[in-house]
């Protein structure tokens, strides 16, 4: 399931972990604070917060620092395939549909019991077998759902959310925010690399002219 994989991608990404620690340090430096941590929501502001001198965004400073001090890091976005896919899924609707299926299955059992009290035909048995199979599948889905929800809650706690804030966090919204940040980081990182390449080429041309 992409939701499980998305959480795993974020938790196991060394680049993301390093970026978040640097992100916090840069944010504290720019704002003159000593915040010990932040929630993922703050990532949405990374492209809005700018330094007072050069007007570079927080994302720019992060990408520049990472290239300088953590060159083995990735562009982040390419690591988050499941995160990007999960950002496009409406999990609330998915979970609501599961509840609806369970409710409709129970209603079908009740209806079958009413219309077939004295019916021992093969058709009744086929419907009974079908509903039994459906009920088992729904039970399996509910088990997966409960495990996933518990995993999601643990994931949010890991990233600094308070217990009372967890019910308000939709996976779709959280992963969309992270995906947009990762994409912005990759774009900014590539621009810095291109700038450095052009500057290196310019220096090389200047050297050639001096030699000539």
TrEMBL record:
Protein name: FH2 domain-containing protein
Pfam families: FH2 (PF02181)
PANTHER family: FORMIN HOMOLOGY 2 DOMAIN CONTAINING, ISOFORM I
GO function term, MF aspect, one: actin filament binding
GO biological process, one term: cortical actin cytoskeleton organization
Organism encoding this protein: Teladorsagia circumcincta
GO-annotated cellular components: cytoplasm; cytoskeleton
Domain FH2: 1-211
């Amino acid at each position: 399931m992409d939701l499980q994989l998305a959480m795993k991608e974020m938790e196991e990404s060394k680049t993301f972990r390093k970026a978040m620690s640097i992100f916090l340090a840069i944010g504290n430096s720019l704002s003159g604070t000593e915040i010990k941590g932040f929630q993922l929501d703050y990532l949405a502001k990374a492209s809005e917060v700018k330094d007072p001198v050069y007007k570079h965004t927080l994302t720019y400073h992060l990408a520049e620092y990472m290239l300088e001090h953590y060159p083995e890091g990735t562009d982040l976005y390419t690591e988050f395939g499941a995160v990007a896919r999960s950002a496009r899924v409406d999990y609330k609707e998915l979970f609501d549909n599961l509840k609806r299926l369970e409710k409709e299955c129970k209603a079908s059992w009740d209806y079958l019991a009413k219309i077939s009290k004295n019916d021992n035909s093969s058709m009744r048995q086929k419907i009974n077998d079908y509903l039994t199979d459906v009920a088992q599948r729904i039970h399996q889905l509910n088990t997966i759902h409960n495990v996933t929800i518990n995993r999601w809650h643990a994931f949010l706690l890991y990233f600094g959310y308070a217990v009372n804030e967890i019910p308000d966090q939709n996976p779709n919204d959280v992963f969309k925010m992270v995906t947009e940040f990762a994409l912005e980081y990759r774009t900014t990182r590539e621009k810095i690399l291109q700038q450095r390449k052009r500057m290196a080429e310019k220096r090389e041309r200047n050297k050639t002219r001096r030699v000539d």
